Amino acid sequence: MAAVSLTGCGVFGHSWDVKLEVTGPGSADVGYSFSGDTSGKTALNQKLPWNKAQNVGFGFNDLAVKNAKPGTVCRIYVDGELKVEQNKPNAEGALSCFIQLKG
């Protein structure tokens, strides 16, 4: 079990600095998980801009935004470089970004 947790942190391979970001007017509900997380986290009614950063190993990094107003943008940066951006919430005010990092 410990080896599984450690691989998500990059101890046994490459690691990356990942930053999840949501910008836009007002507030939104933000769900997110970094590589190695066993379950996602939710931050309700977050004033924008919002961001979280973590050093991670291989795996999926997800960012889901709900109740977003038009003009809201989600982004994922890897080692300081913009890798994913979504800038059009759907009719329900939802948008998402994700990236899979491979060792």
List the helices and strands and how they pair.
Elements lengths: L1 H7 L7 E8 L3 E7 L7 E7 L2 E7 L2 E8 L6 E6 L2 E6 L8 E7 L2
Antiparallel strand pairs: 1-4, 1-6, 2-3, 2-5, 5-8, 6-7
Q: Which residues form runs of ≥5 with pLDDT under 50?
A: 1-10
Q: State the helix count.
A: 1
Oligomer: single chain
- CATH level-two architecture: Sandwich
Number of domains: 1
- Strand order, sheet with most strands: 4-1-6-7
> What percent of the residues sit in helical stretches (DSSP H or I)?
under 10%
What is the N-to-C order of secondary-structure elements (H for helix, E for strand)? HEEEEEEEE
- Span of the ends, CA to CA: 20 Å
Largest sheet: 4 strands, antiparallel
Per the CATH scheme, the topology name is Immunoglobulin-like
CATH C-level: Mainly Beta
**Beta-strand percentage range:** over 45%
Quick check: average pLDDT?
A: 90
From the alpha carbons, calculate the radius of gyration and give it in angstroms.
Answer: 14 Å
Q: Compute the number of strand runs.
A: 8
Overall body shape: elongated
What is the SS-derived class?
Answer: mainly beta
Model description:
With 103 residues, this protein is mainly β. It has one domain: Immunoglobulin-like. Strands 4-1-6-7 form a 4-stranded antiparallel beta sheet, with no helix packed on it. It has a 4-stranded antiparallel beta sheet with strand order 3-2-5-8, with no helix packed on it. A hairpin with a 7-residue loop joins strand 2 and strand 3. The protein is elongated and about 40 Å long.
